[in-house]
């Protein structure tokens, strides 16, 4: 971090770098979970949901770029070994063993809710102390909330379809 940046940041930088490395690990896991889930997904609405999940994956990758850049600006080293991701991450990676769309969406919803907690913690930790990291965390938080909303909408649509299908008499 630049000299003036160090002067205006009144936060435990080591603790913040640890928090950011955990978030970075979670972003990589989220990216892969979205990407592979979109590729393997089966079931109704697949053709509508798949491109959106791939967009979410791309946005998670963008979050990783922002977090890496901030870690470096703070004088830290981003986690460089993928085997560390699951050790540092609080948000889990769920293997898409069942490719049914509803299962994939539930797995991604769980990840988004965990990410929302992570970025709220970072935003709260840096609020009024490190404006650059705070703004980044709030920006990512807003996108994670948007992802959660998208997934909840798709799950609601799937449930509505199932309810309507039950009403049909053969």
Fold and architecture overview:
The chain has 170 residues and is mostly helical. Helices cover 76% and strands 0% of the residues. The protein contains six helices and no strands. Helix 2 (13-40) packs antiparallel against helix 3 (46-73) and helix 3 (46-73) packs antiparallel against helix 6. The radius of gyration is 18 Å and the shape is elongated. The relative contact order is 0.17.
Topology:
Elements: H1 3-8, H2 13-40, H3 46-73, H4 85-88, H5 101-126, H6 131-167
Helix pairs in contact: 2-3, 2-5, 3-6, 5-6
Total number of beta strands? 0
- Measured as a percent range, the helix fraction is over 70%
What is Rg? 18 Å
- Shape, per Cα inertia axes: elongated
Give me some keywords for this one.
170 residues, mainly alpha
What's this, in brief?
This protein is mainly alpha-helical and 170 residues long.
